[in-house]
Amino acid sequence: MIADPRVFDDEFVPPDLLHRENEIEQLLRRFTTRHPAESDVLISGPSGVGKTVLARTAVDHLETQTDITRVFVDSLGKTTGRVLRATLEQLPRGPDDVAQTLPTQDVCREIREAITGETIVVLDEGDDLPQTNAVGELLAMANVTVVVIAHNGTDWLSQLDVTDGHRLDQGHLELDRYGVDELADILERRSRQGLHGEPVSRAQLEAIANEVAGVARYGIQSLRSAAVLARERGHRRIRDRDVDDAYEHARHRMRKLSLSSLPFHHQVLYAIVHETEELSASELHDRYDAVSEELYAGSTPQPVGERARRGKLSKLAEYDLIDYDGPTRDRLYWILDEDVEPKVELPEPVSSH
DNA sequence: ACTCCACAGGAAGGATTGGGCA
DNA sequence: TGCCCAATCCTTCCTGTGGAGT
Length: 353
Known about the structure:
Blueprint: H1 21-31, E1 41-44, H2 51-65, E2 69-74, H3 80-90, H4 104-114, E3 119-124, H5 134-139, E4 144-150, H6 153-159, H7 162-170, E5 172-174, H8 180-194, H9 202-211, H10 216-232, H11 240-260, H12 264-275, E6 279-280, H13 281-295, H14 306-318, E7 322-325, E8 332-335
Parallel strand pairs: 1-4, 1-5, 2-3, 3-4
Antiparallel strand pairs: 6-8, 7-8
The protein binds a DNA duplex through helix 14.
């Protein structure tokens, strides 16, 4: 049923972006302003509403029209130096591989040298950038237009240096979730691009769009899941039952992918939380201490202390794998999808009775 | 009302890693 | 080779929070 799986990838850029015509126009107008300090942009909005794909579409369009260079950097978790090195590596005249130990100031100098004409640097996943100097350094460069993508624009701006913040505030573009009709249009287009023989009705697409509350990424993954389920169940067309189960199926798959991308410590903690319905911090740490000797025996990563564990638990929550609630002292942790099985097997718990 | 306790999460600093360079 | 630099990931220390005990 799925004719072209790439259509459902997060990275897929559709040939034409629906229902963002105004935003694209706004971006292009700003990019082509005559005042260099007025071309920078901050794109903000909730997860999965198409911030990245909007930036790509606008910048790609500009590239076909004018003689600009474009650079995309995923800034998630990156420090000043890493953001700037990634920028330098992607410049056409820059080196392919920049040493991690090259001093940041030298990286800036090399970026300036490698820039020939107008250049747009898109910093995706830029939520943590205010804690670095990367944005300031790039804004200070001649011929560089900075585009930052972040979740909460107002928060983001308030954390930034005042003059830099002002500059990006002028070009702040806030994206909202799609309406049900709009998202259904988008899904209809994806269905034509990625599925065989129009197997899904408008009403079904609207049901999907409604369930995911306008979050395009979830909608697209649900559509994919509906097609997968229909195929598994031997249906020639997607049935309402497939649509009903699609969102859960999609979330399950996204969580499985998230979990497998995480390193060993996270896997151990996930396995511990997975063991029981819910558990307190002290139970969690006790269990960790109990299993760590066997689990980490002879392996390169060593068990980590409680403070480091807390950081990893936040990460697991960020990845939508676990959740917690309650005031500090009585906080409980639990798994969000029991069916997402842990990748490490824990030693048998010793029964206390 | 006060103190105690268990825990969260920020800040600072240390150990380690690894490429560049004399 | 040994030193430098920066990054990374951890620990230690610390402050804040809110329920429980007195």
